Structure formats: structure tokens, C-alpha cells
Amino acid sequence: PDGKRMVSWSNDQSIRIWEAEEDQVTCVAIAEEVNCVVAFPDGRRFVTVDGEGKLKVLDTEMREIIHEWNGDSHTIWHVTVSPDGTLIATASTSDVGTIMKIWEAESGRLVTHPFETGGAVMSVAFSPDGKKIATGDFLGNIAIFDVEIGSLILGPTTAHKSFVYCIVWSLDGSELFSASTDTIIRKWDTESGLAIGEPLEGHTGWVSLLAISPDGKRLCSASLDKTMRFWDTESGQALGDPLELEEEVKAMTFSPNGEFIASAGWEEKLSLWRVPWWDGDLGQVSV
């Protein structure tokens, strides 16, 4: 949250902590490959999920695993942390579809009974108040569930013609953005489930990642067409020219002050870019 540190993970079975001011890198070895790594809001802890369904919470200050538990006998493909850092949600694929589980971050205890979400879930996101959780699935649907009891609140709503690869909430929780393999991005009213405005179009490949700026006014999207694009969240208008990349982006995030966006791909490279509205110069500032 202070913008002084970045954390990356790789299939080389390591998590690396990058200290921006000191130009130092700390490597934390893990015993197995992980499917995903997600940061807690405090920026100090991270949760990892391996191929055996085990969850581990890493403290980057102590440089060690502080909690771990078996999350599911099926492969967990998606994990997310609640805005207050007290809950962890996992989505695993079973013979009957996707099973969602909500865990206490400190104890690993299940908060509510596991609940089915229907089709195979491709993306999961807590609402800003932590009371709801949204999903996007491979059939192009989005849905919203109550976190405490696991009941369906909204949907499933047909959002896209194909997989919903990523979903993010607006900062006030009134809107939801979805991105899909159909190459477009859409905005939804989270109370009515109705689409807001026209689709955001411009990508020529699957849209796999979305990130909202810290002030909530801008949206960044990444696609398999090897570009990142920036959008005004209110009007849906494109901001500046797309950022042309050498490879597909597999992860990205805004810096806490919104000046930079970090990205990483398959080429073992972590890049930092200055956003176009900061000073009109969309440039790579470090690798």
C-alpha cells in the first residue's frame, strides 16, 4: 500500500519481493508450484494455492509461511481476499461444477458451507464492503452471492458470448466490469443486473485482465493481442493510445498512488509503466 514493494511469483517455485527504494530482491522459496498468489490489503501478507489444494499465507516481513491448511481435494483455480483481509474465497472445479468456499484468513476455518456456483468459474471478486462476491463463468455469465450465507443475490446474467475471464467492482460497489474472450469489456449495475452504456471495444484478442485505478476513475485492460488499454470508468471512452507489448500480460496492478502500472508475462520480466494521464508520457520506466 505504500508503493515501496512489489511481489512476483513464478513457476520456478519462488516468490520474489522487490524493494523499490533499495533496489533489492528477496527470494522466498516454496516447495511446490502454485496456481495463484493474491495479496492481502495490508501489502504484507500473500496467500498462495498449490496444485494439491493447499492454502498458505506468507508474511513478507517475516519471510515465512505463517498459516497453511488444506482447502479442497479438487484443484483450486481461483482465490481472492476480502477488502478487510479477514476472509479468503476459493473456487474449485468438481464433477458437479464449481464449488465456492469462504475461509477465515487467520484460522483457515470455513465461514459458511461450500456452495455451488453452477458453471465453471473463471473469475471471482469480493465487493468493496466484503459482503458480496461476484463470479464470472465459462458460459459468459456473471452472478453475485451473499458472502455470509452463500445465497445467490443476482443472476446468473448472460454478460458475454464466451468466457468471462475477469471481473472487478467499482470502488463504491454499484458497478461491475467484466472482460471476456469475446474481446469486449462491459459495465453492469450490481443492483438490477442491467448493462450500463455501450461495450468497451478495441482489443482484438481475449481480454484476460482488468484493474481499476486507486481513485476509481480509470480502468486498465490487458489482452492476448499483446496490448494494455486504458478507459474512463464513467464514460467508457478510451484514454490515449494502447500500450503495445512484446508479450501477453499475465498479471498487472496499479501502484497505490495511481502513477504507475506494473505488468508481468511469460518472459521472466517484471515491467513498470507510467500511466498516460499522469504527464502524457506512457513509457516504460523500469524492467
TrEMBL record:
Keywords: Repeat, WD repeat
Keyword Transmembrane helix appears in the UniProt entry: no
Superkingdom of source: Eukaryota
Organism in which the protein naturally occurs: Hydnomerulius pinastri MD-312
KW Repeat (keyword) present: yes
Stored InterPro entries: WD40/YVTN_repeat-like_dom_sf, WD40_PAC1, WD40_repeat_CS, WD40_repeat_dom_sf, WD40_rpt
Signal sequence interval, chain numbering: none
Pfam families: WD40
UniProt protein name: Unplaced genomic scaffold scaffold_54, whole genome shotgun sequence
PANTHER family in the record: F-BOX AND WD REPEAT DOMAIN CONTAINING 7, WD40 REPEAT PROTEIN
UniProt cross-references to SUPFAM superfamilies, sorted A to Z: WD40 repeat-like
Organism placement in taxonomy: Eukaryota, Fungi, Dikarya, Basidiomycota, Agaricomycotina
Ranges for the WD repeats: 1-28, 157-198, 200-241
